[in-house]
C-alpha cells in the first residue's frame, strides 16, 4: 500500500467528519506524524487501517473540544464556484441527509464512498467484520435514500 496515495482519501474522510478543510488537513498531517512515530503496525499489513484509526480518533478528539466561533469568522461562499445552483442544492440535500444519519452509519458510508475503502478495510478501521460492514452500509444507504426521497 502506498501511504502517499492514501493522503487525499484520508483528507476527504477527515473533511466529511469535521466539515472544516483546514482542520481536516491538520488532522491528516498529525495522523501521518503519529503513524511514522509508531513502529507497532509497520510490518503487519494493516498500515491503512492503523492510519485511518489514528485519523478517526483525532477527529473524535476534535469533537470533544469546546467550540468558540465569532460572527467575524463566518464567511460568504466563494463567488464563481465551479458548481451550478442544481449541484449546490443536491450537495446540500445530501449533506443534510447525511447529518441525520447515526454517527456509525455516516462514518461507514464516508469510508466507503468518500475514501473508497473496501468493506474489509472499513471493518479493520471500525472493528467490525466485513459482513457487518455490508449490513450496516446497506442499512445506512436505505436510510439515506429514504431521507432524500
Key words describing this protein structure:
149 residues, mainly alpha, Arc Repressor Mutant, subunit A, 0% strand
Number of distinct beta strands: 0
Based on secondary structure, the structural category is mainly alpha
End-to-end separation: 39 Å
The radius of gyration is 17 Å
Low-pLDDT stretches: none
Described by strand count, sense and barrel closure, the largest sheet is:
none
Shape: globular
Overall pLDDT confidence = 82
| Total domains | 2
- What series of H and E elements makes up the topology? HHHHHHH
Strand proportion, as a percent range, falls in under 5%
Distinct helical segment count? 7
* Percent helix: 55-70%
Structure description:
By secondary structure, the protein is an all-alpha fold. The chain folds into two domains: 1-75; 84-149, Winged helix-like DNA-binding domain superfamily/Winged helix DNA-binding domain (Arc Repressor Mutant, subunit A). It is built from seven helices and no strands. Helix 5 (103-114) packs across helix 7. The termini are far apart. The relative contact order is 0.12. The mean pLDDT is 82.
